[in-house]
Amino acid sequence: MTEKLFGTDGMRGIANNYPLTIDFCTKLAIVLSNNICINRHKIAIARDTRVSGTMLFNALCAGFTSQGVNVVDFGVIPTPLCTTLTPSLDVDMSIMITASHNPYKDNGLKLINSAGDKFSDEQTAMVEAAMQNPFDVRYDADRIGTVTSVYGALEHYLATVQKITSADSLKGMKIVLDSANGAFSAILPQVFAFLGATTISLADLPDGYNINQNCGSQHTEMLCKTVMENHYDLGVAVDGDGDRIIICDENGKRLDGDQIIAYLATYMQKHNMLKGNAVVSTVYSNLGLGKYIRSLGLEHYASAVGERYVINKMREVGSNLGGEESGHMVLSDYTLTGDALLTAVVICLGIKESGHKVSEIFPVFKPFPAVSHNLRFENKEIISKIMEAQEVQDCIAKISNDLSGHGTILVRKSGTEPVIRLKIEDENAEVAAEQAKKLLAVIEKFK
How many other C-beta atoms lie within 10 A of the C-beta of residue 275? Predict the structure, then answer.
């Protein structure tokens, strides 16, 4: 049986532990060299700010260059910039070394094809199989690749922002920015300064260990406190690799991704920016979002959970707006994947234009009552056992039937962590809570 190495958003684990070791990364690079990098013999690699990024980069470079593949070193840049620049570099693929919103000890690898899209399930399955099948490695003294560096991340974002708006267009706004000590640390504050906003910049001094540490999209306490204490208009937090955004209003209230999707849909429709008369989110989004989108006269489509599934559905229906409740927002007119910075710019432009406080705009829609749980276990093997258990499946099926027509249940394995995510919604909050209690009792038997 082929070992499953990649989840919905690449590979994730603890650095210097299998599979994120130098031996594994070197072998992976050799496999990719001989299966993917066969046309241009060229690859691009980027990373976020965590301390293990350089180690994994060097291991990958050793594998690629040993097979005659040239490496373009992006250095530290956000994931959305890596995906967006990839098609312009005439490379066979690129790799983003990141564990996104996870702590510094974690790291991961996102495999991106030559068009800037994350590898499909079929591509990752092929790589997984190739990693586990015996193969001969050729080393040729006349075939050694080179490593060259490409810079200009800030310049790229400034150029992109100028396609959306002009310098000083956010003058008069007061915004707290939290860069998560990650890949946007040297970019986010400077872009908002260019736009003329008055800002307080938090978590913008990465040291390799402080990425996502009590900061960023997953830890917004300091962001919310700073906004309230300084009487600022709003707060913007990103995650370590810059593809996720969280907003808080002037009262320090955190707004979830579904509300941001609803706001973007409203703003883009008003300005005739929305394509395909459609908006995409995932099956994990609140049922109230779909109801609101349809009330605007738009089509709402729900994809599987995972940013690449959102993007695939957007292309299928011709939409240029999609996102996830977790904070990934895709504005495909400007970027190929979720981009926290560009999303923040568009949101702030809309807020300034409205003349209203953020708390007067949000919430955009009334969500259905929901009960959510993230159940963490020791390893993914235990999770597979639970998810495959007949008693668990029967319980899920019964709850789904009971909620039919007025609610929904979603139970899934996390693609990046040993976690089962459970979410039950219903028009009646008590019904949602009671049904969640039933399923939790069944799952508890397997602990």
Answer: 15
Residue from 274, 89, 258, 81 nearest 161 by CA: 81
Residues 303 and 89: their CA atoms lie apart, in Å, by 30
User: Mind giving me the DSSP string for 311-372?
Assistant: HHHHHHHT-SEEE-TTS-EEETTT-SS--HHHHHHHHHHHHHHHTS-HHHH--SS-PPPEEE
Question: Do 100 and 111 form a contact (C-beta atoms < 8 A)?
Answer: no
d(CA 269, CA 250): 25
pLDDT digits (tens, 9 = 90+) for 139-188: 999 999 999 999 899 999 999 999 999 999 999 999 999 999 999 999 99
DSSP 3-state assignment of 23?
helix
What is the spatial order of strands in the sheet that 299-303 belongs to?
Answer: 299-303, 278-282, 321-323, 329-331
pTM: 0.90
Crossing angle of helices 340-354/153-164, nearest 10°? 30
DSSP 370-406: EEEEEEE-S-HHHHHHHHH-HHHHHHHHHHHHHHTTT
For the chain, list the domains and their CATH numbers: 11-151 (3.40.120.10), 154-361 (3.40.120.10), 370-444 (3.30.310.50)
- Other beta carbons within 10 Å of 169: 20
The string of pLDDT tens digits covering residues 326-345 is 999 999 999 999 999 999 99
Residue 212 in tokens: 């996502």
Contacts 24+ apart (CB under 8 A), 440-445: 440/373, 440/375, 442/391, 442/392, 442/395, 443/375, 443/386, 443/392, 445/391
Beta strands, E only, 98-146: 106-113
SS3 269: helix
Tokens of 91: 């490379």
**Beta carbons within 10 angstroms of residue 231's beta carbon:** 8
Q: What 3-state DSSP class applies to 44?
A: strand
Give the separation between CA 72 and CA 75, rounded to whole angstroms. Answer: 9
* Three-state DSSP state, 273: coil
> Residues in the chain, how many?
447
Under 8 Å between Cβ of 365 and 259: yes
DSSP state of 195: T
Please say whether the beta carbons of 303 and 285 come within 8 A. no
Q: Which residues carry out catalysis?
A: 100
What is the rounded distance in angstroms from the CA atom of residue 26 to the CA atom of residue 58?
A: 9
Q: What does DSSP assign to residue 184?
A: T
